[in-house]
Design brief:
The protein is 55% helix and 8% strand. It has 266 residues and is mainly α. The radius of gyration is 21 Å and the shape is globular.
């Protein structure tokens, strides 16, 4: 394992170990309760920061910081099944949830003040038996159980209420072509060893993306696993403006080059 991946996995595992303390700052319930009384709470601030960060770092939070990531990737050792369907389910969850927040905030007459530590005890989430039990039930039902039954990072694909904020931020970044972190590919260097696809924690068809010059994907968490696993250097990080390459155009150019090569032309 490359040093960068050791660091990444260490960070998300540490984040998971601290999850009992930070649980409320990622809560989809507390933001609704706080909005009903016109309060901007910790999860409101964190979700807003996720959206802003996505303008420059995409879903980097999911790959490098998220406590649920630490839990799910630890489960890879026991269950390494790929997940390739159902990404739209989280939008079915996220849309009515966001509408509920907006409706409650309007009924409360708008947001009146900020209480970042709303419902916490000295800034900590788990402070009594009831909250401890709630934490473990949520952890098991939403993160652990889906990872074992459905597959790798099922929570990220199907249930995460935070991912849509970052996906929308990324789409906005693409529209305005903002300078940001992204993946670059060099299809001519690809040796079709399948390592990138086999090791992707989000079960993405990375090799296919590389060869079609379309490494931008809403489910990509920019973890760098494909980069560090590629011995040929066909994938790399890049800090720059988004430059969309049409897959069909890329295929046409490749076909044209093959025709020229067949004729002995350069």
């Amino acid at each position: 394992m490359k040093k960068r991946q050791k660091i990444r996995k260490g960070i998300i595992l540490l984040s998971f170990f601290l999850f009992p303390a930070t649980f409320y700052y990622l809560s989809p319930v507390l933001i609704v309760l706080a909005s009903s009384i016109g309060v901007i709470n910790g999860s409101f601030v964190i979700f807003l920061l996720m959206f802003i960060s996505a303008l420059f770092l995409g879903r980097g939070y999911c790959g490098w910081v998220c406590p649920a990531a630490g839990c799910q990737e630890a489960i890879f050792l026991a269950k390494d099944k790929k997940v390739t369907k159902g990404d739209s389910i989280k939008w079915i969850i996220w849309t009515p949830w966001l509408c509920t927040i907006v409706i409650f905030a309007i009924k409360a007459g708008g947001y009146k003040h900020i209480d970042f530590f709303y419902q916490t005890t000295y800034g900590l989430s788990i402070s009594d038996l009831q909250s401890f039990i709630t934490y473990n039930i949520v952890l098991f039902l939403l993160i652990v159980f889906p990872a074992f039954v459905i597959g790798k990072r099922s929570f990220c694909h199907h249930l995460c209420w935070m991912a849509p904020f970052m996906i929308l931020g990324r789409k906005l970044r693409n529209s305005f072509k903002l300078v940001s972190l992204q993946l670059n590919s060099a299809s001519d260097l690809c040796k079709h060893c399948h390592t990138c696809t086999e090791n992707c924690p989000m079960s993405l068809p990375v090799e296919k993306m590389v060869n079609q010059n379309t490494t931008e994907n809403t489910e990509c968490i920019l973890c760098g696993t494909c980069i560090d696993g590629c011995s040929e250097g066909a994938i790399s990080y890049n800090w720059g403006k988004y430059n969309k390459t049409n897959a069909s155009d890329a295929k046409s150019r490749a076909a044209e080059l093959r025709r020229y090569a067949a004729r002995g032309l350069k």
